[in-house]
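Multidrug ABC transporter ATP-binding protein, Streptomyces ruber. Tokens?
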Amino acid sequence: MHPDEPPAWTPPPAEPGRPRQVRRILKLFRPYRGRLAVVGLLVGAASLVSVATPFLLKEILDTAIPEGRTGLLSLLALGMIVGAVLTSVFGVLQTLISTTVGQRVMHDLRTAVYDRLQRMSLAFFTRTRTGEVQSRIANDIGGMQATVTSTATSLVSNLTSVVATIIAMIALDWRLTVVTLLLLPLFVWISRRVGNERKRITTERQKQMAAMAATVTESLSVSGILLGRTMGRADSLTKSFAGESEQLVDLEVRSSMAGRWRMAVITVVMAAMPAVIYWTAGMAFQLGGPSVSIGTLVAFVSLQQGLFRPTVSLLSTGVQIQTSLALFQRIFEYLDLPVDITEPEHPVRLGQVKGEIRFEKVAFRYDDRSGPVLDGIDITVPAGGSLAVVGPTGAGKSTLGYLVPRLYDVTEGRVTLDGVNVRDLDFDTLARAVGVVSQETYLFHASVADNLRFAKPDATDEELHAAARAAQIHDHILSLPDGYETVVGERGHRFSGGEKQRLAIARTILRDPPVLILDEATSALDTRTEHAVQEAIDALSADRTTITIAHRLSTVRGADQIVVLDSGRALERGTHEELLARNGRYASLVRRDARLEPTR
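Tokens:
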């Protein structure tokens, strides 16, 4: 991280108002409203069938059995069986459709978050832990699976069942219906309290899961293992992870138990309600009130149980929704990240790129709170020319190079490619025109061939071999047991630093960009390896516009021009001989480099 760069990224303020967030969630389902309409029809049909069953039972008890009408009894019994079959079929179909819709919504969310992160500037990733990013995509979206896949169906199904059941209960006996509905407000109040409590705990739990994921990503990578073992910190890291896991255990238990006693009260009350109905009907009969037939009483209790089940499910769905709001909020934070590097509405597309680069009064800072990283930079690199940028650590050298491919955007001034502002170019033109080889070589956990073809997916084997020969790595690849199909290992740790650099150079050669940014590509190598890599770089740089960010000055003496940066300003510029003759800052750096060279 650059010393002037601000600390870790913090999420933007939450959206004001829950209704707006709910509308935003509902908008996710809009592309699938046709399928959801079918689900609604299935739900409505299932609710009508289930409500009809108690009426059939009433007729069996009050008419068919007392009157000995076996034909009617058989017909009513068959109707109950058919109703059960239809309800099951409708349930399977609605589950299939709703689950498909839910998974598509989750796919859309994952893709949208990944796409947004792909368009973020390099500065965002230098301020954000990798594990945090992974946790948002995996844990947060994964945690919403049950809600997204079943909530819409459950909401419609239970709401329809509740309304239909209440209407049926009123048709049977309105007085018993009033007794039943008196307790519903209590149920609603309890469920809202439980939902708010679980939402708060869920927010804490997801933050802890993100922190633990970041710890795992950092400490269990190849580099993390090497650091932990060589520093004797393996036990300490294990204890630290155990502490974070212990906090997660506590949050998981609290999340699971939140509101359990309150919901248990609802369960007890619901179990007692049939007894209350029987007692109410019996007391009304004893006191001379209107009697209720056995069939009506049994049918009513059946409907009552049919009311309570979807009511509790509806309340549980409300709790799930409140819990999921915390997860949705974390996802929306990423979807709302401002993309500061965007393609213009009408981008310029260059055909044949010559490669002239100009920095015109360029200034850059990471944000309004940090100081300038670059200030007043004016440099021209002719097409096919070479520029070396040297200076102390933190001088802004890498930042200057990264402005060309728009890994960062200038704060003031402009950077041009063949006279066109790079901010006016389409991303494809920039990607084709500018290649970057950095000190931090990244290789995927895949074969050598797959890593090379990342630059050019349709490259032939002959093209791979030619690029590898130019990078002086072909013979080494052939010496491996599986040749070009050898898996490089996590982050390429099966290869030495010099071998990884040459693979990166071969990958860039394969892409064949007219402009090349070399960001301290040999600074971490020993002198012998550096010499081999430098030969590969020389082959890569031939006939290309090259900007070399240099730590070792021995690699830049042949550059057409050398610029000395310090604190973001260009202090000196000229050829190697011209700058030595001035006996200024560059000459001082050369003398320092000469003193350090024997120790390398």
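Residues 1-9, 12-16 have pLDDT under 50 and may be disordered.
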